[in-house]
Q: What sequence folds into this?
């Protein structure tokens, strides 16, 4: 049977649709991923139709049984998606009618594909965003585990990628811990925005059947039903919210990736990736490339692109449903898939990454990383900070000209600059002390970092 003679609306038309239009119009090649949500949603709808006596209870029971059979067969691959079907909704409905006959034709009572697709997509977003959240929680655990090993590991902190002030590797990693924590919160918000049940909105103007919307919402685990039928069928804010939240996840993963790429270069050599998470070169035998991190950074672009696609797709749509909205799926699915594979690769990569603490420490001892502390030393003795800053600026210039570090400068020289300098200046500019004295809340001192670790663990526990 050709797809044309099968069209539901064929009797309204004198002619058949062009083959090219069927291909162009069809979404089953990508929306088949919604099969489970479509079936679960239809089961809830059918039960409600039966309960409300809109269709006979026996028909509802037979629909439910038929749909359960389809779900089972799709899950164990004994039923294949029909590539000629218009979309997943049409495919399942026609498969149902083929299996159970007349009763199958009653499933779509009081429902439109417009509220149906909105429902499926909301169920799908809730499921997938919850999965992404689980992955982010795992990622937090890996970050925490690495950080716990490196509370005392001094590394250079940078601004402008120029050595700035000393931090610990734990402190640096926990910055990502905070980003991921915000991502988790953002995903929770997405789930909450998505938690609205649209069935009962019909095509756009609700329905004349006495549907029990609350009952459907309860069966499907939604916290509320949509408040306006026009909005309910044409709202894709939740898709955009999800894609935005996923863009933020990728942005954070990409920033970390960029650092990993730098850190695993010969010039930095702060970390070494496990062989399982690096690749070689086809020509240069010495190479060990951080491809995973580069791909995460690269794939961030497509996730941003998906967000842009959705914003642009929605901006000119009059109420209510328009077919443009079928374009929401590939963008959303691609973002979900990309974040999933990025996290799947990134989590074990960070978990197995070896940290070269000595190299970090060595890098931190360069670049006058303790210059601020030297100025603070004078300030704490009563010199206004701006004056102290000027004195140390001159000293740094002198050191650079003479190829010296701040530690190399003899006390007499310090005292020539300002008589308030005493022997304890060397203690004040000692790297470890520079870090340990920054024990302000949120700072890099081991004590502060331990508090950050405890709090982060508590936050994760609550999520
Ligand atoms: N495949 C369509 C989509 O993804 C389903 C909704 C179709 N509704 C319609 N009025 N043609 O948006």
A:
């Amino acid at each position: 049977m050709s797809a044309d003679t099968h069209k539901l609306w064929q009797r309204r038309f004198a002619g058949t649709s062009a083959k090219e239009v069927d291909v162009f119009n069809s979404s089953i090649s990508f929306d088949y991923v919604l099969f489970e949500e479509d079936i679960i949603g239809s089961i809830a709808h059918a039960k409600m139709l039966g309960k409300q006596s809109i269709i006979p209870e026996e028909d509802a029971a037979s629909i439910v049984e038929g749909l359960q059979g389809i779900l089972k067969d799709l899950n164990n691959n004994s039923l294949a998606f029909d590539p000629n079907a218009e979309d997943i909704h049409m495919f399942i409905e026609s498969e149902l009618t083929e299996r159970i006959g007349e009763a199958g034709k009653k499933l779509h009572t009081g429902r439109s594909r417009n509220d149906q697709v909105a429902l499926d997509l909301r169920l799908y977003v809730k499921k997938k965003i919850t999965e992404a959240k689980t992955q982010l929680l795992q990622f937090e655990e890996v970050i925490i585990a690495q950080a716990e090993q490196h509370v005392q590991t001094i590394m250079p902190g940078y601004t402008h990628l120029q050595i700035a002030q000393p931090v610990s590797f734990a402190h640096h990693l926990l910055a990502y811990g905070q980003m991921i924590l915000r991502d988790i919160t953002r995903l929770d918000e997405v789930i909450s925005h998505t938690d609205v049940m649209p069935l009962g909105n019909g095509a756009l103007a609700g329905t004349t059947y006495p549907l029990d919307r609350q009952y459907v919402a309860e069966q499907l685990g939604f916290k509320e039903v949509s408040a306006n039928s026009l909005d309910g069928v044409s709202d894709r804010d939740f898709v955009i919210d999800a894609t935005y939240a996923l863009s933020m996840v990728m942005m954070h993963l990409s920033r970390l990736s960029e650092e990993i790429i730098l850190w695993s270069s010969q010039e930095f050599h702060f970390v070494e990736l496990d062989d399982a998470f690096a690749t070689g070169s086809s020509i240069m035998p010495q190479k060990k490339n951080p491809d995973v991190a580069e791909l995460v950074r690269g794939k961030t672009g497509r996730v941003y692109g998906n967000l842009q696609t959705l914003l642009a797709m929605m901006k000119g749509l009059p109420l209510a449903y328009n077919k443009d909205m079928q374009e929401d799926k590939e963008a959303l699915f691609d973002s979900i898939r990309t974040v999933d594979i990025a996290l799947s690769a990134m989590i074990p990569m960070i978990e197995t990454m070896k940290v070269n603490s000595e190299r970090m420490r060595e890098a931190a001892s360069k670049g006058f990383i303790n210059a601020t502390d030297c100025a603070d030393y004078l300030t704490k003795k009563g010199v206004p900070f701006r004056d102290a800053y000027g004195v140390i600026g001159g000293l740094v210039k002198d050191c650079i000209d003479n190829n010296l570090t701040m530690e190399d400068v003899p006390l007499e020289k310090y005292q020539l600059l300002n008589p308030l300098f005493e022997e304890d200046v060397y203690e004040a500019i000692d790297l470890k002390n520079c870090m340990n004295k920054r024990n302000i809340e949120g700072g890099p001192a081991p004590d502060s970092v331990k508090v950050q670790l405890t709090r982060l663990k508590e936050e994760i526990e609550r999520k």
Summary: The chain has three domains: 3-109, 114-362, 364-448. The beta strands are 154-159, 162-168, 196-197, 224-225, 271-272, 354-355. Residues 4 and 19 are 9 Å apart (CA to CA).
